[in-house]
Structure formats: structure tokens, C-alpha cells
Write a structure and sequence with these properties.
Elements (H helix, E strand, L loop, with lengths): L14 H11 L30 H12 L2 H5 L3 E10 L2 E10 L4 E6 L4 E6 L4 E5 L5 E2 L2 H16 L3 H6 L3 E10 L2 E9 L6 E7 L5 E10 L2 E10 L2 E3 L2 E3 L2 E5 L7 E11 L11 H9 L26 H16 L2 H14 L7 H16 L1
Antiparallel strand pairs: 1-2, 1-15, 2-3, 3-4, 4-5, 5-6, 7-8, 8-9, 9-10, 10-11, 11-14, 12-13, 14-15
Helix pairs in contact: 1-4, 7-9, 8-9
Length: about 375
């Protein structure tokens, strides 16, 4: 059965997919929940600052004009980007391919993990590490769309607004030293706060902030866009500074190493042979899943069963999730059980099985 990707996605987000792709690439590295140090928050708006604010549509007109004009933007039929960064000596890359016809492709990679997602506009798929291809829809397909579309959708706030439950320009507020219009975007079934900041003088996108409930508790992140350069008449950001406690040093900068306009063809988004086979077999009765998300032997996994190098990190991660409370445990279990079937047999899968097992004890 095909998985249809639509442009009106109720859980669509802009910054979340970038964070998710980044955290996937860092999956093998320690991740520690911390209290927000203030870097991800902006100054509260005063009542006076909210007078005379433009509508989202009016702001979108400013933004479109500032980045190159509607005519030049519409000439962009395909976009290929590669962003890279270094975190504690680890090279991390996020590659995205976008087509106005609906094709999407993303690839996130680090020394510890890699993931691919793609769609021809109708059928969406995912492959994690050396695991098998699988069909995806819902939030996973939305993440593919959002990550692949980030550079394009930042050019027009109206595109973001159309995919949200609601949107509103809520204040004039300082963001990284510039007075900006602060736009709140709300999604019907996603908790958290999400804002995008646009230069109040010309509408240029300056950055984003979001706060979400995660497996490690409530986390905040701030994204600053910079080094805008004109390519084929359109301005694209070439750096993104990420500030979040989930990063080992609290912040890191992603740099654009590749940006190609109108170089991709339809074959770029063709379904892999393995995905075509999955589609062909999708309507066949499913075989009973004997593996599931439990340890096949039925025996309890002990911490000592994990590789020694994994144990201390796993203990700390479990403690952080437990301290975050029952709501965070529920979120963690849902996400970990969703990911588990896509991880190849080995130490990583055994570790995740152990984490799921231990969290279920305190659920």
C-alpha cells in the first residue's frame, strides 16, 4: 500500500526535523539532559511591542521580496544541499534533496549511525544503518518532508503557515541583536512552543526556537541562520548555529558545503528495488511477528550483558529519563519501540532492548 505524502501535514515542523536528524547522527554519543541555560530563550515581549504587527501573509510578502522575489523562487524546481558540522571531533553530515514535484531524500550520518529516508512523492521509505528498508508514513514521513524542505520553506512564512494548525505574528522582539517579528506556529497534535524570527526591517529569516517534551524531559533549542548568499537570484542561508543542552558543548555550527539548484532529475527520487518489493507485498497477509520488541529468548537482559563501553552511558541515560518523570518515560518508550525493529542485530540493539526493558519496570 502506498504512503501518500501531502503538503498539509498537521504535525509539520521546521526545526524539529533538523534536531532529530542531528540527534540520530549522534545516537552513539552520550546525550545528557540539562536544565536550559537560557541560550534557547528570547526576551519576553512587552505589551507595547505588540502594537501594529503585520499579518503572517503581509510578513510573507516582505520575506519573499527580501530573499529574491516570487519569480526567482518559483524557478527553483529542485534543490540539493549538504550540511556538515563537527562535534567533539566527530564529523556529522545531513544531506537533503528536494523537488517541487514531491520527491524528497535525506541522509544523516556520523561515525556512530546513519539513516536514509526518501519518497517519490507517493511512497515513503526509510533505512537505518545496515538494517532493512521499510515503508513509513505519519510522523516519520513528515520528518522526511520537513528536513528536505528546510531551505525552501524558510523563504516564505506562508508555506509554513499553511502546514500548521494556526500561526500568528505575536511580537516585535530582539533576536541575536536585531529587532524581529516573532511568529508562533502551532500544530494540532504536537506539544511545545515553536517560533520563527524575521528581521522587522525587511522580513529576512533570522532563526528559530522551539521547546518540546522529549524522552529526556523538556528540551529547548535555538537555531540561528546566517551567511546568506545569492544563488540563481535567491538567497539561501549557509550556516546554522544550533544551541541546545543535547549537544555536548551546548552549541555547534552547521555549514553548508553543497547547494545545487535545478541539477536533480526524476530518477533521483526513484524507489529502490527493495522498496518496490515492499510495496508489491504490502497487501499480502502479514506473517506473525515472533521477534517484536522483546528479547527473543524471554530472558531478562542484565547490564553486564552489554559491552563494557556501553554500560556507564546507558546507566546515566536511564537515570536521566527516570528523573524526568512518567510523561517522559512514556514518550521515550514510544520512540524507542518504534526505532527498535529498524536496528540491526548487535550491541546497539541489545542496549536499546535493555533500556526498554528497564523503563517498562517503572512505567
Amino acid at each position: 500500500m502506498s504512503k501518500k505524502i501531502t503538503s498539509n501535514m498537521s504535525r509539520a515542523r521546521w526545526a524539529g526535523p533538523v534536531t532529530a536528524g542531528l540527534m540520530l547522527a549522534l545516537a552513539g554519543a552520550p546525550v545528557f539532559a540539562q536544565n536550559n541555560n537560557g541560550n534557547s530563550e528570547t526576551k519576553p515581549a512587552t505589551q507595547a511591542s505588540q502594537e501594529g504587527l503585520p499579518s503572517v501573509d503581509k510578513l510573507a510578502e516582505m520575506t519573499v521580496e527580501a530573499v529574491g522575489g516570487r519569480e526567482n523562487i518559483e524557478k527553483v524546481k529542485t534543490l540539493h544541499t549538504v550540511m556538515s558540522m563537527s562535534v567533539q571531533g566527530m564529523a556529522i553530515t545531513v544531506e537533503s534533496k528536494w523537488s517541487r514535484d514531491g520527491g524528497r531524500f535525506t541522509k544523516s550520518g556520523s561515525p556512530f549511525s546513519n539513516e536514509m529516508r526518501g519518497t517519490d512523492g507517493t511512497t515513503a521509505w526509510m533505512k537505518v544503518g545496515q538494517g532493512s528498508y521499510m515503508l513509513i508514513d505519519g510522523a516519520q514521513a513528515e520528518q522526511l518532508h520537513d528536513q528536505a524542505s528546510l531551505h525552501i520553506e524558510m523563504l516564505n512564512p506562508k508555506k509554513l503557515s499553511d502546514r500548521m494548525e494556526s500561526s500568528e505574528v505575536v511580537a516585535r522582539e530582539e533576536f541575536n541583536g536585531r529587532m524581529c517579528y516573532k511568529v508562533r506556529f502551532d500544530s494540532e497534535d504536537t506539544e511545545g512552543e515553536r517560533h520563527v524570527f524575521f528581521d522587522a526591517s525587511n522580513g529576512m529569516p533570522m532563526g528559530m526556537s522551539e521547546t518540546e517534551q522529549t524522552p529526556m524531559g523538556k528540551q529547548s533549542a535555538k537555531f540561528t541562520l546566517g551567511d546568506w548568499k545569492t544563488i540563481d537570484g535567491v538567497k539561501f542561508f549557509h550556516t546554522m548555529t544550533i544551541e541546545t543542552p543535547q549537544l555536548p558543548d551546548g552549541s555547534a555550527e552547521m555549514k553548508l558545503t553543497t547547494l545545487e539548484v535545478n541539477t536533480l532529475d526524476k530518477d533521483t527520487f526513484a524507489l529502490p528495488a527493495e522498496v518496490k518489493e515492499l510495496v508489491a507485498n504490502a497487501d499480502k497477509p502479514a506473517e506473525e511477528d515472533t521477534g517484536g520488541n522483546e528479547v527473543a529468548s524471554g530472558d531478562e537482559i542484565k547490564l553486564e550483558d552489554l559491552p563494557e563501553a556501553y554500560r556507564e552511558r546507558t546507566k546515566m541515560m536511564l537515570e536521566q529519563v527516570k528523573q524526568a518523570g512518567k510523561e517522559s518515560i512514556e514518550v521515550a518508550l514510544q520512540q524507542y519501540e518504534q526505532v527498535l525493529p529498524n536496528i540491526p542485530e548487535g550491541n546497539d540493539k541489545l542496549t536499546l532492548q535493555y533500556i526498554i526493558q528497564e523503563l517498562k519496570k517503572v512505567k
